[in-house]
């Protein structure tokens, strides 16, 4: 006589077989993320979140990430370029503030902090390790080292009185660091690295990077 445990085991192995079959026939892989094939369930979750009134901020960031990726033609380096440009534009808004606009300054520092955190996470978890695998270790280490200074600037700006006469001086220095760092990535390191990548490898990096970006929403 079949016991309850036997039945449970049978059900579990039927489900496992079904899952394996779906994986084989559907040929889903981590890379499908890049082509947006997984957007359906995510959009469903998004709608559910909206219905129960939570995750509106997450939803906004998710849609921004999707449109950013579409604008960049699904190319990891183009996505990063768009993020560089968008962040520098936020710095310009911050530099245009007056000493009495302390709330606006605090809010812009927060926005820049979020953008740089997400950007650095994508590079540090995917792009720089891929660079090291391609024997570009010196560049990867140099860039990651500079990310450390980005964090230091963020820490300073967040803890500095927003009406301090030093505030914009530090913002300008910070912007210079970001601009020079982004230029090195865009004009030297990424084009050289990308030259040696196949279409499949590019797709893989884009997919993995998008996946890491999603974790930071
Ligand atoms: Fe970077
Ligand atoms: Fe970057």
Automatic annotation (TrEMBL):
According to the entry, every stretch annotated as the Hemerythrin-like domain falls at: 78-192
Q: Does the record bear Cell inner membrane in its keywords? A: no
InterPro entries per the UniProt record, alphabetical: Hemerythrin-like
Q: Where is this region: Disordered?
A: 1-31
Pfam families named among the record's database cross-references:
Hemerythrin
Which spans does this entry mark as compositional bias, Basic and acidic residues? 1-30
The name under which this protein is listed is Hemerythrin-like domain-containing protein
Species, as recorded = uncultured Sphingomonas sp
């Amino acid at each position: 006589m079949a016991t309850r445990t036997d039945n449970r085991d049978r059900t579990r192995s039927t489900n496992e077989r079904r899952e394996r079959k779906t994986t084989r026939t559907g040929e889903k892989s981590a890379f499908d993320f890049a082509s947006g094939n997984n957007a359906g369930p995510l959009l469903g979750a998004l709608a559910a979140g909206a219905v129960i009134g939570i995750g509106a901020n997450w939803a906004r960031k998710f849609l921004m990430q999707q449109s950013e990726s579409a604008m960049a033609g699904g190319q990891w380096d183009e996505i990063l370029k768009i993020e560089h440009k968008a962040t520098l534009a936020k710095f310009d808004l911050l530099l245009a503030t007056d000493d009495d606009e302390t709330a606006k300054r605090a809010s812009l520092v927060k926005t820049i902090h979020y953008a740089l955190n997400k950007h650095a996470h994508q590079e540090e978890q995917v792009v720089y390790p891929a660079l090291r695998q391609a024997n570009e270790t010196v560049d990867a280490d140099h860039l990651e080292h500079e990310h450390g200074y980005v964090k230091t600037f963020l820490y300073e700006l967040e803890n500095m009185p927003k009406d301090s006469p030093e505030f914009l001086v530090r913002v300008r220095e910070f912007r210079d660091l970001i601009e020079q760092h982004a230029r090195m990535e865009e004009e030297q390191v990424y084009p050289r690295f990308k030259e040696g990548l196949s279409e499949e490898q590019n797709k893989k990096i884009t997919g993995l990077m998008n996946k890491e970006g999603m974790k930071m929403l």
